[in-house]
């Protein structure tokens, strides 16, 4: 009977493994990278575009618009990348502080922390007879206990140690990629007025495409996302152009 029970247990485990192999869930897991790309490209498309439109509205030459635009792209990429680095570094530092604090609580007041496990599991509908063995198992596995408390009590996931540098590089490069789009017409068209018209068309097309792709990745409706992204970029550029014209008329 014992052998039959052990054989059945092995068969059940094998069946579960086969089910997991056959069932491939299509979840999108690169959210942080996509978020950084969205931040970098969206700012890169709108800010240099608005600057170029504003300078064109002030009758600046294409060379001046291009020079100022490239300087802004360089400064913006550094600033945005640094912001991404500091944000990710702060998140990592916060996690490590809470990790140490939680470890100290497990060491000094283990019964209180065990009671918190029971309270968390009871919120999922488990009764004492069901969560009791789980509490005991976690108390016998300090590493798993600590990870459980970080995730389910504090709602914190362990950050990637390379996250800060990855975020900085992703945002900065995305900003440069987006920022060069509205400036390219000024390289080939010497008259700023005509270059601005081409820049408007090219940038609006890029905003539409970027918004569509962003919607596909984030789960939003792609066409709605494309329209929203384009409207934001257009409003930013129109505001800059209008302010430049107003200042010029004074």
From TrEMBL:
Keywords, comma-separated and alphabetical: Ion transport, Iron, Iron transport, Membrane, Metal-binding, Transmembrane, Transmembrane helix, Transport, Vacuole
Chain segments annotated as transmembrane: 168-189, 195-213, 225-247
GO cellular component, one term: vacuolar membrane
Membrane topology (UniProt): Multi-pass membrane protein
GO molecular function ontology, one term from the record: metal ion binding
Domain of life: Eukaryota
Pfam families in UniProt: VIT1
Catalysed reaction equations from the record: Fe(2+)(in) = Fe(2+)(out)
Compartment(s): Vacuole membrane
Biological processes per GO annotation: intracellular iron ion homeostasis; intracellular manganese ion homeostasis; multicellular organismal-level iron ion homeostasis
UniProt KW Metal-binding keyword: yes
Keyword Ion transport: yes
Comment text on domains: The cytoplasmic metal binding domain (MBD) is located between transmembrane 2 (TM2) and transmembrane 3 (TM3).
Known role: Vacuolar Fe(2+) uptake transporter.
Subunit structure, interactors included: Homodimer.
Family: Belongs to the CCC1 family.
UniProt-recorded name of the protein: Vacuolar iron transporter
């Amino acid at each position: 009977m014992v052998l039959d029970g052990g054989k059945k247990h092995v068969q059940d485990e094998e069946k579960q493994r086969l089910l997991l192999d056959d069932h491939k869930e299509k979840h999108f897991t690169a959210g942080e990278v996509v978020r950084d790309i969205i931040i970098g490209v969206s700012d890169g498309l709108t800010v240099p575009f608005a600057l170029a439109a504003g300078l064109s509205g002030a009758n600046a030459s294409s060379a001046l618009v291009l020079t100022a635009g490239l300087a802004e792209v360089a400064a913006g990429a550094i600033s945005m990348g640094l912001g991404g680095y500091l944000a990710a570094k702060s998140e990592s530092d916060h996690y490590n502080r809470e990790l140490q604090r939680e470890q100290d609580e497990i060491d000094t007041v283990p019964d209180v922390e065990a009671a918190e496990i029971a309270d968390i599991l009871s919120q999922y509908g488990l009764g004492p007879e069901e969560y009791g063995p789980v509490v005991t198992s976690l108390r016998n596995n300090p590493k798993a206990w600590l990870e459980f408390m970080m995730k389910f009590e504090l709602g914190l996931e362990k950050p990637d140690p390379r996250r800060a540098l990855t975020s900085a590089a992703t945002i900065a490069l995305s900003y440069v990629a987006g920022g060069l789009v509205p400036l390219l017409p000024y390289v080939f068209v010497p008259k700023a007025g005509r270059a601005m018209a081409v820049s408007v068309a090219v940038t609006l097309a890029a905003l539409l495409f970027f918004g569509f792709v962003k919607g596909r990745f984030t789960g939003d409706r792609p066409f709605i996302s494309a329209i929203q992204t384009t409207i934001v970029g257009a409003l930013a550029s129109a505001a800059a152009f209008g302010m430049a014209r107003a200042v010029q008329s004074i």
